[in-house]
Design a protein that fits this description.
Blueprint lengths: L9 H11 L6 H10 L5 E6 L6 E4 L8 E7 L9 E8 L8 E2 L3 E3 L5 E4 L1 E2 L5 E8 L8 E9 L3 H31 L14 H15 L2 H13 L5 H22 L7 H14 L3 H26 L7 H9 L3 H15 L2 H13 L5 H14 L2 H6 L5 H21 L3 H11 L5 H20 L3 H12 L23 H32 L3 H30 L3 H36 L7 H27 L2 H30 L3 H5 L1 H32 L1
Parallel strand pairs: 2-10
Antiparallel strand pairs: 1-3, 3-7, 4-6, 4-9, 5-8, 9-10
Helix pairs in contact: 3-8, 4-6, 5-6, 5-14, 6-11, 6-14, 6-16, 6-17, 7-8, 8-11, 10-12, 11-12, 11-16, 12-14, 12-15, 12-16, 14-16, 14-17, 18-19, 18-20, 18-21, 19-20, 20-24, 21-22, 21-24, 22-24
């Protein structure tokens, strides 16, 4: 009897076979069977409220789930499709990472989701969500990054520590460049001419050396306040200063971070072991340059955790709005008072892919606008003319903002076309250069009109007829630039010398004309001389605390010695000579005709000697110093001769000479002492020159 199966028996046979040979269906077979039953192609896509890489904390669940949607060709959602999820890449030796659902079914909207718990190690985690093979879009990848629990702390100390090194490096590099530039930097701003191009060139050179247009503007405020410069002469210098800042930005844009520690090492050994002073300062510049780039490297590494942080990225995207970008750039630059430092931070952000060129240009414009804040603050206690320098700087920067605000995107496109292979960091530096170069080209021909606008805005101011005596040249803002600060100290000592000369010219009047009116002025001048002495001394001490350069220290000592000689002359005049004059004017005695003539002529010679001393001090005129030593011998011999002639008149029985003898001889002796003090200024200059050579 053959074995046959009718229609009724077949299902039982199938069940029996399945019981004997259970079908091992894997997930993909199930999914494939399920999807093939639809008779159409399925697609899987990511659903993200905030696009980009998700970030979270190690060993914690990610704040947002990974969501996918399964649809047909026509975009219709498909329910009850199983989605398989797995972690296929994670940091080495990471433990504890998991997914809330390895397999999940889509809902009525075609959505399925899983939640990632990050592992123990920081780094990148990648999650795959699949439907099945055979479909064009059957898999999506989610990326998440794990940060350490103390990432905010590390970010803050990395940013501020790196910024501190950056600023320290810039300061060290600036000081080294200033010192290696030598005496040429000393009088460079004083020698600004009316030639606008020369003025702009000087502004560029000085700012390149001192690494700060803010510092240049503060110096200009000081020089105008001290009447060393006219306000109108400073406008081309300010335009050049803006170009000098762009050179700093171009230097920062170089990708030499990997060589930063090499520069630090080379600079340190040059500074420590070189015997030549010039090489020491070159080494200091290299050391500062290396520290600057190492600080940028630290800031760059510190910013890695926020490279994919959605809130921060959204904030940076908002900066592409020109007005907001300008505001942020202006405020930040005003706070740190360094446009170079702000541009350095921008370049760090750009190197991490956090800042676009479209966002950078408004920030650069804002940085331009924030730069004059330092000059405005330094001019608050200055005179009207000095305030005009700060206002002019602000107007110049404001004009740059007005020119480019509506063209930031076009400028970005132009920069890319000009240098398509350039890095974003270089494009930012180029944008800064073009903005300030265009500004100079536009404004340099019309600087007189800019000056008139500032005159109109600031006005002439009201004169105060009761101005108290004060220092005229000393400015603490220039202490960080010792070569220029020493120049201001010298100007104040020369001013002190002029007061002493005025005292000397007046002291002869009470003896010759019996008029004591000049004595009150002499006593007031003595107080002013003492006031200047104390402030100049303190100022020179501050300079030497700022700079340990042995040459600067020697020059400070020379200034102190010379100032001391001027002060001794003032003491002789206001003390010994003025006391004799008070007694002389109330007596009925008179000098003889010849005696009076001799005193006047000898006084004139000593006055000339004091004038020569001031020239020697001002110009370090060694020829004049040698002449002074020769004149001193001549005047000593003349003093003895005049004393001899006075005794001759006494022996001849001349009554006037007998009555005035004591005062006459004291005047000769005191004037000779003044001659000795004045000649000491020449001796100091000659000794200092011999020591320097």
């Amino acid at each position: 009897m053959g074995f046959g199966l009718n229609g009724m028996g077949r299902p039982f046979i199938y069940i029996f076979l399945l019981m004997l040979f259970p079908l091992q269906l894997n997930a993909q077979d199930s999914i494939s069977h399920q999807q093939n039953s639809f008779g159409r192609t399925l697609h899987i896509t990511r659903i993200e409220e905030t696009p980009g890489i998700k970030t979270g904390i190690c060993n914690e669940q990610l704040g947002v789930p990974f969501i996918v949607r399964v649809t047909t060709d026509t975009g219709m959602p498909v329910a009850n499709v199983e989605v398989a999820c797995n972690i296929f890449a994670l940091p080495e030796q990471s433990k504890g990472s998991s997914l809330s659902h390895l397999r999940t079914m889509t809902d009525s909207l075609g959505l399925a989701q899983t939640q990632l718990t990050l592992g123990s190690k920081t780094g990148t985690y990648r999650v795959s969500c699949r439907i099945s093979e055979g479909f064009p879009d059957n898999e999506v990848i989610f990326i998440a990054k794990a940060k350490g629990k103390n990432w905010v702390y590390m970010l803050v100390i990395g940013l501020f520590g790196g910024l501190g090194l950056f600023l320290f490096g810039m300061h060290t590099m600036s000081e080294g460049m200033q010192q290696s530039a030598g005496e040429r930097l000393r009088n460079i701003l004083e020698n600004v001419t009316r030639n606008r191009i020369v003025g702009a060139g000087i502004g560029t050179v000085v700012t390149t050396v001192i690494q700060s247009s803010s510092a240049t503007s503060v110096m200009l405020v000081s020089f105008v306040n001290a009447n060393l410069l006219q306000f109108r002469q400073t406008i081309p210098v300010l335009l050049g200063a803006a170009i000098g800042t762009t050179i700093t930005a171009q230097m920062i844009a170089f990708k030499i971070t990997e060589y930063s520690l090499l520069l630090v090492a080379v600079g340190f050994f040059m500074q420590a072991f070189s015997k030549r002073e010039q090489l020491k300062w070159v080494g200091s510049s290299l050391f500062g340059f290396g520290v600057l780039f190492f600080g940028m490297h630290i800031m760059s590494n510190a910013m890695v955790p926020i490279r994919d942080w959605a809130p921060f990225i959204e904030l940076l995207l908002k900066l592409e709005n020109p007005l907001l970008g300008i505001l942020v750039g202006a405020v930040f630059t005003a706070l740190i008072q360094s446009s170079s430092a702000f541009i350095g931070i921008m370049i760090v952000l750009a190197s991490q892919g956090l800042l676009s060129l479209d966002a950078s240009i408004p920030l650069l414009l804002g940085s331009n606008l924030g730069t004059p804040v330092t000059a405005l603050l330094s001019s608050m206690k200055a005179g009207i003319e000095a305030k005009k320098v700060a206002v002019a700087f602000l107007i110049i920067k404001l004009i740059s903002v007005l020119i480019f605000t509506g063209w930031t995107i076009q400028l970005g496109k132009f920069l890319v076309q000009m240098a398509p292979e350039a890095s974003l960091q270089r494009l930012i530096a180029n944008a800064h250069t073009i903005i300030n170069l265009v500004l100079m080209i536009i404004l340099l021909p019309v600087t007189p009109q800019v000056a008139r606008l500032v005159d109109w805005l600031v006005g002439k101011g009201k004169e105060d007829h009761k101005i108290s005596f004060n220092t005229l040249y000393l400015d603490n803002a220039t202490i960080t630039t010792p070569s220029l600060a020493l120049n201001l100290a010298k100007q104040e000592i020369l001013r002190m010398g002029m007061i002493v000369r005025d005292m000397l010219s007046k002291i002869i009047t009470p003896f010759i004309d019996k008029d004591s009116d000049a004595l009150n002025s002499i006593y007031t001048s003595e107080k002013n001389v003492n006031f200047l002495r104390d402030h100049i001394k303190d100022y020179l001490l501050m300079i030497n605390r700022e700079s340990s350069n042995s040459k600067r220290l020697d020059e400070s000592f020379q200034m102190l010695y010379s100032m001391n000689e001027f002060e001794k002359i003032a003491d002789i005049i206001s003390g010994s000579l003025a006391n004799r004059a008070e007694k002389w004017v109330i007596k009925e005695y008179e000098f003889s005709k010849d005696g009076k003539k001799e005193l006047i002529e000898f006084h004139q010679k000593i006055d000339k000697q004091l004038k020569r001393a001031m020239v020697v001090f001002d110009e370090t005129n060694l020829q004049k110093a040698a002449q002074m030593k020769s004149k001193h011998k001549e005047y000593r011999a003349l003093s003895r001769e005049l004393e001899k002639q006075h005794y001759s008149r006494i022996l001849e029985g001349m009554k006037e000479s007998q009555d005035s003898s004591k005062t006459h001889l004291e005047i000769l002796a005191l004037l000779s002492s003044i001659d000795s003090n004045a000649t000491n200024v020449a001796r100091i200059a000659l000794d200092w020159h011999q020591k320097a050579t």
